[in-house]
């Protein structure tokens, strides 16, 4: 089978797999191993880092979307009148799967001597189940416990922990009066009963958000109308397009904001970090790949007699150049393949590896107060892996050009003079 390959490739394979003890320079084997290991390490590191960043984005987005809608509809004149009619119009778009009205109010929760800021979301439980998965995140209760007039409330579990409350406890919600003076005002106070807690796994929501029935929230805020409407889609990735379509087909006073715009700064920052991390780690691969220059230069010096004999037998300078380019490319492919295998293995088992690392270091590497997550997520994507492998092999190929060109220029007579 090998006999059918071009002789340049056969020689390159022989040089790559040759026994190191037969080489004149014993350091060449060490340098070759370092080159392959450097490429493999750089590729593996880049795959793991990008997989973790992909997993971080995917996990946080999923947890965000358990609380925020795919599209939010607000009337720029204030409250949203006839939300049922607005929802019916929106459902005319086949991409829209459901909708629910909402009220949002800011206040302070008071329990004994503990006070915490809170964003209370007034919801209609039956409709809310069509736009979010919050009902599945509730512990020690259920969403249907939010009945109008009973002033029940469901707290994020972190918020409940900081307040020191449990199911059945009563606490006070303090809100500023509408249009109150900035210097002196008496907040409105409403007593609520805790009927449960929820845990969406996102610290921002678990520590600052509470749920109440929309009628109770409107009564506290003294609102006649809902604040807006939340819409869910069959495909959340179509949210920007659907928001634009609804904005064009529905009354002009309605504003449509999709979920990517609600967290635009966060997603933009994460994408920017991902690009910068890719560039930084590609430089690591580049350094390892260009170690091939010194490796091949030493290889060319070690094989000058072989090169002279090949030239004497009729090999052209182009063929000599091809031999060493193929050898360098093979080293790059081997290092890349090893790096891809190691990177994918680590990325797919990061949830097992990280606890061991944290135990060895004696510290927590991921703070949920900062990163919203308590464990390291990972989402290896084949597009990233193919791109990383392609860049690595391309850099290794570029690194072969100079020493291969030098090999092609060797004078056979000069090389054999001292042999």
TrEMBL record:
It is a multi-pass membrane protein. Residues 279-412 form the ABC3 transporter permease C-terminal domain. It is found in: Cell membrane. InterPro entries: ABC3_permease_C, Lipoprotein-release_system, LolCE_TM, MacB_PCD. Its main location: membrane. The keyword rRNA-binding does not apply. The chain crosses the membrane at residues 30-53, 276-298, 319-348, 385-408. Keywords: Cell membrane, Lipoprotein, Membrane, Transmembrane, Transmembrane helix, Transport. Residues 32-217 form the MacB-like periplasmic core domain. Signal peptide: none annotated. Belongs to the ABC-4 integral membrane protein family. LolC/E subfamily. NCBIfam families: lolCE (TIGR02212). This is Lipoprotein-releasing ABC transporter permease subunit.
């Amino acid at each position: 089978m090998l006999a059918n390959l071009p002789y340049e490739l056969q020689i390159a394979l022989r040089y790559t797999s040759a026994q190191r003890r037969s080489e004149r320079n014993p350091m060449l084997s060490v340098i070759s191993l370092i080159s392959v290991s450097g490429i493999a390490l750089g590729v593996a590191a880049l795959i793991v880092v990008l997989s973790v960043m992909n997993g971080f984005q995917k996990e946080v987005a999923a947890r965000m979307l358990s609380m925020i809608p795919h599209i939010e509809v607000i009337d720029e004149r204030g409250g949203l009148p006839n939300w049922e009619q607005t929802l019916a119009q929106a459902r005319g778009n086949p991409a829209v799967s459901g909708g629910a009205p909402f009220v949002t109010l800011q206040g302070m929760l008071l329990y004994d001597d503990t006070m915490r800021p809170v964003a209370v979301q007034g919801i209609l439980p039956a409709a809310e189940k069509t736009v979010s998965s919050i009902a599945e995140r509730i512990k020690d209760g259920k969403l249907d416990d939010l009945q109008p007039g009973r002033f029940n409330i469901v707290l994020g579990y972190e918020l409940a922990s900081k307040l020191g409350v449990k199911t059945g406890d009563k606490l006070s919600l303090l809100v500023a009066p509408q249009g109150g003076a900035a210097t002196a005002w008496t907040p409105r106070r409403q007593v609520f009963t805790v009927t449960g807690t929820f845990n969406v796994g996102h610290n921002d929501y678990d520590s600052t958000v509470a749920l109440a029935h929309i009628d109770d929230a409107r009564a506290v805020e003294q609102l006649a109308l809902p604040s807006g409407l939340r819409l869910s889609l069959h495909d959340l990735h179509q949210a920007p397009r659907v928001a634009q379509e609804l904005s064009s087909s529905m009354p002009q006073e309605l504003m449509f904001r999709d979920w990517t715009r609600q967290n635009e700064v966060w997603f933009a920052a994460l994408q920017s970090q991902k690009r910068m991390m890719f560039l930084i780690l590609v430089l690591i691969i580049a350094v390892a790949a260009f170690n091939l220059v010194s490796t091949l230069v030493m290889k060319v010096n070690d094989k000058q007699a072989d090169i002279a004999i090949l030239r004497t037998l009729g090999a052209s300078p182009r063929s000599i150049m091809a031999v060493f380019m193929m050898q360098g490319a093979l080293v790059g492919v081997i290092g890349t393949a090893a790096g891809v295998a190691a990177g994918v293995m680590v990325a797919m088992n990061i949830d097992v590896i990280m606890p061991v690392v944290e135990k060895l270091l004696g510290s927590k590497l991921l703070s949920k107060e900062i990163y919203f997550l308590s464990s390291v997520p990972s989402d290896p994507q084949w597009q990233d892996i193919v791109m990383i492998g392609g860049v690595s092999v391309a850099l290794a190929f570029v690194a072969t050009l100079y020493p291969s060109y030098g090999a092609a220029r060797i004078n056979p007579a000069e090389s054999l003079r001292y042999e």
